[in-house]
Amino acid sequence: MSIAEVMQVLVEHGHSIDNIKNGYTIAQVYLFFEKIRKRELDDYRMNAMVLTNCLIYSNPTSEQGTARKKAQMFQQFMDSLNWGRLTKKDKERKEPKTAETVIKSLFGGAGLIPMRKGEKKRVS
Question: Among residues 17, 42, 52, 94, which is most buried (max CB within 10 A)?
Answer without folding.
Answer: 52
